[in-house]
Design a protein that fits this description.
With 245 residues, the chain is an alpha+beta fold. It has helices at 8-14, 20-28, 120-127, 147-155, 192-199, 230-242; strands at 6-7, 32-34, 37-38, 44-45, 52-54, 57-58, 67-72, 101-103, 111-117, 135-142, 158-159, 162-163, 168-174, 178-185, 204-212, 215-216, 225-227.
């Protein structure tokens, strides 16, 4: 007999609290309660009967799936709640009317394309390390960039004891005091491009993500969001379900 219960992390991700993996971290940290009791990883809940709270706040279950792209400005952190009260991306999507969470991350000093959703499975498929989803960045660095540095970036540099995967890096524009580069990387390590540039002696002045998995941000204004269209969703669904299988 079907009970109507679902895993707690699925409940949280579908309610727009966080991705499935982040939801598991919240449960393990003891920040989630079910009917007043601290939950354990693996717990199941009935969305119609059980009361679920995160950090004391009651979570309303919402199964409607939402997928948007946001042009994240610099100065915003990629979280839904920040313990230091910094500006976060949730402040930019309040008019959506449904709770969504970021798919992956984009550091506070960077800007550009960020997907947001309340679909934990979708988010997990796009961010799982095995997927190697392409991400494109426009990166402005100080000074000149010679061929030797470009070759090192393309073939891989060691950051935190692990070499980066081969990627595509080429010059878009050369100015007197700076160079604009195009990066296409296939992994998503924390602040990866900044650390790669630092490893070859380049100072990043500006970093903007423009494309993920063939879906481009285009002319979307800074700080604005829009729903992903059918063509974009088809592309992301196909890529996330086929890679890394």
């Amino acid at each position: 007999m079907k009970t109507g219960k679902i895993r707690l992390q699925k409940f949280l991700s579908e309610s727009g609290v966080a991705s499935r993996r982040k939801s598991e971290e919240l449960i393990e940290a003891g920040k989630v309660k079910v009917n007043g009791h601290i939950a354990e990883l693996g717990s199941k809940v009935d969305p119609k009967r059980d009361k679920v709270t995160v950090r004391g706040k009651t979570i309303v279950y919402n199964k409607e799936k939402v997928y948007i792209m946001l042009h994240k400005p610099r100065g915003f952190v990629t979280t839904m709640k920040d313990e230091f009260d910094r500006k976060n991306v949730s402040d930019l999507v309040t008019d959506l009317g449904i709770k969504v969470f970021p798919v992956g991350r984009l550091d506070k000093d960077s800007e550009g394309l960020l997907f947001m959703t309340n679909d934990g499975e979708f988010a997990n498929n796009l961010t799982h390390p095995s997927k190697h989803v392409n991400k494109t960045y426009r990166v402005t660095v100080a000074g000149e960039v010679d061929d030797e540095k470009l070759d090192k970036l393309c073939t891989g540099v060691e950051i935190e004891g692990k070499k980066t995967l081969p990627c595509d890096v080429f010059v878009i524009e050369r100015r007197e005091d700076r160079t604009v580069l195009n990066f296409i990387i296939h992994e998503g390590r924390n602040r990866q491009i900044r650390k790669m540039c630092d490893a070859v002696g380049l100072e990043v002045l500006r970093l903007k993500r423009t494309e993920i998995a063939g879906v481009k941000m285009g002319m979307l204004a800074r700080g604005k969001w829009r729903h992903l269209n059918e063509r974009e969703m088809q592309r992301l669904t196909n890529i996330s379900s086929s890679k890394g299988e």
